[in-house]
Amino acid sequence: MAWQPRKLTVEQLEERRKAAVRLLRSGRHSQGEVARRLGVSPSTVCEWSRKLKQEGVAGLRARPRTGRPSKLTQQQWKELRGLLKAGAIAAGFPTERWTLKRVALLIRGHFGVSYNPNYLAEPLHRLGFSPQQPRAQALERNESLVEAWLRRDWPRIKRGLVAEGRPLPAWTRQVVRFGPALALPGHQ
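The structure assignment produced for this chain is given below.
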């Protein structure tokens, strides 16, 4: 039995405590051995053992989580997910880049609820959104022209530089590195 994940759910934590109860009640395992088997510290098993003696199994049950309730309902979070998937431009922003500040503005404008942007990362992660920095690209960029240049012109320029014995300029390395597979060294 291995309890390796870094972050266990409430149910998994309770299941681990129940496993500890079974091992402790069997009388065949020391607290140190129970701790090793369940991946917890010996002091944790000592605390569980104390609670088991004083309060019984009920003392080791999961307790309700306290804390401030969410300002948005589950339905509103689902609606927010749809708004985010529709895109930032559809929400009235000039670009498609979502920032926590923009999400907070969207929530305030759509639901009338204020959230500090610093505390939106975790709920957005639960909705399936992760922080990402898109690679900057010019709006005028035409992928077919770039690909044609890389296929037709870049090999000619590269051969000319190599024939002259000159090193490739630093700015061209990025084209080689991030261009399509045709632009990679050794590809014709």
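Interim note for the steering committee: The two ends are 54 Å apart (CA to CA). The helical segments are 10-26, 31-38, 42-55, 74-86, 100-111, 121-126, 143-163, 170-178.
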